[in-house]
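Example record for the data management plan.
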Amino acid sequence: MAALLVVPLKKTFEVDIAKPLKNLINRSYNGNNANVIDHSEAVNELSKLRNTALVRPCITIDSLETIYNYYDQLLVLESKIPMHELQNVPFKWKNAFDKKMFKGRISLTLPSLAYEKQCVLFNIAAMQCAIAAAQGTYRDDGFRLAIKLLQQSAGIFAHLTSVTSFSNLSTCDLDTDTLQVLSNLMLAQAQEIFVLKAIKHSMKESTVAELASSCQHLYERVLRGLQKDSLRSIWDKDWINTVAGKQCGFEAIAQFYQSLVCRNRKAIGEEIARLQYSTERFEAAKLHSGKPNLYEEFLFQAQQNLNESKKDNDFIYNATVPNMKTLVEPKQHQLAKVLPFTTPLSPNSRDFFVHLVPIVLHRAIDVRKSEIISGEMMKLRESTQKLNETLVRLNLPATIEVAVGSTLPRSILNKAKDVREMGGIDGLCKLIDELPESLRCNEEVLDEVVRMLNEEADADTRIRTQFMEKWSQKPSEKLTKTIRSNIAKYREIIHNAVMADKAIRKTFEKHAHVLKMLSKPISQLENECSIGFGDGNISNSRSAQELRRLMDNVDALKAEREQIESELKSATVDLKDQFLNALAEDGAINESDISDVSIRKIFAPLCKRVNENVLKQQVLIEKTQSVYHDFERECSDRSEARDAFLNGLASAYDTFITLRKHLKEGTKFYSDLTYLLITFRQKVSDFCNARKTEKFDLIKSIIEDKNSNWTMKTDNQNETITIQAELYSHITMAESFNPYATFTIRKIQ
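Corresponding structural encoding:
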């Protein structure tokens, strides 16, 4: 029997995936993964695994497990982080059939993980074929392993026909027609193993005939694919001959074993006809394959049976030998099946990134967490605003301190001191003045992103117009829809920020006079207070003492509120173990059910404290208003002008705190936005560079067309470069070649 045909492996080269992958993980989690785990070891292990599995492979079962493991790790990573953003790793793969090529690409480099996965799957299928071919036919376990691997290989090649997405750029070994032929070849070779196993175990003649007939038809389909004009130049020169020989050989084997069925039925005439045709096909198999000893044992046995049957027919039966065209072809019984491609490929694969929570889940948790935190903090801030409005309306605590003597109230002095320590009105002015500069920086980064995209799109349009149907690169407008949508979202965010800045500046200008006064030294502030204090002193009255106690409660309430806000902001949520347990038990993760219940459970104590704090405030306000009415009756001779002045200072303090808080948040917002936009700009830059590389490769491929001569002219040079396609192997493209230049291409007459 002829040996099985082995598909050659694609060759690749070492690339640095460790550093880009680390950056992608950090960028995806904004450098703040809830698990706070360093994944450098896992990333380095993956990089080493790639080199072992792909760069220096061996044709062994262990090597096959290694490449299984690498592919499984890529799938695991894809389920956790956006691996499509890994755009700056140049994966270079050579054509598996490069030594037999007369046209097409010898290699292709693409910064695409999808391309890497396709090439890895091709090598897995090729290695499965090679290991199957190395199995001996003298052991049943060798038969079983060979059949399993060939059927899996057929499934992978068939799977690749449906996922290949680089048909305009890929090397010919990843072409859909090529992959379909290889899938058919693996299936035919698996059926061949079934035939050999049936012969070895002396199965019924009719069974062997049916299996061999099916094998013959499978090889016939493979032969038609190999002989396609678009594919003939790809294959090794012996492939077509070998497959043609096997197609004839298994047709002969099917007829030989069907003749044995006829012998058992004493159908001597039909037996002789089938034996005659069988010997002819065995001779044709030798001729087509170029192997004079191919199927020699079967041919010898067929000739021996033919001589015996002819002799018996001449002396005993005198049966008529029918024409082969009138005989029914043996039935087909195909045992070989295309095994569906399933993952994981290895049941023993270990997840290198087991501690990495999928980014989708991580972001969903952040959203749910932010919703709860925002809601609770909104409750607290609305309550604080209501409390401050009540105190300002009652002029507390300044009112009860006015009665103590002829100086400013202690609360006003403390507030003025706090304002000066926080920079006063000058500090607010500085923060306000910084906002336009921060805004300008963000707008410049976003404008730079738009410029890069527009330049890339313009270059794509120019080259597409000039190369016309030869330009197969996907249009930029289809690839950049998401990017331009994100740009629009960032524009809207910046617009909203500008409106918020205007509101802050308007509030500042409205209260600037009082804020300036509150920022002055104590002596100047007292001079501003030109209204008399009045003569009455009711600091020791029952209502004044009760109001002081209530104001102490207000301070305690606000302090508790600040503590709750701090705990809400610093609360962490780690659901990794729950997610992994759910995945192990159910095989899937119901993120909404797990995270919603768990996050609410984590925040339940804080939410309870928020509600209790708000209820406590309602009681406190009601009590304060009641006591204040009693105090008013005791202080009917107070100076209304002085009260208004002190009320304005107290209100100015609250305004100062609110403005300062909003300005700090605005400064942080612009800083965070700058980081996001710079990261966004880098992604767009990587995309544009990848498109630039892709343009270069496609232009180079067009120029390499050996069936035509081309003249190439660029607008950047006042010269025309004539390239003879048949001599292109002696020409090296300049390193500084600019694929964004405008090209004019015409055929040489």
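Summary line stored alongside the record: The longest helix spans residues 640-703.
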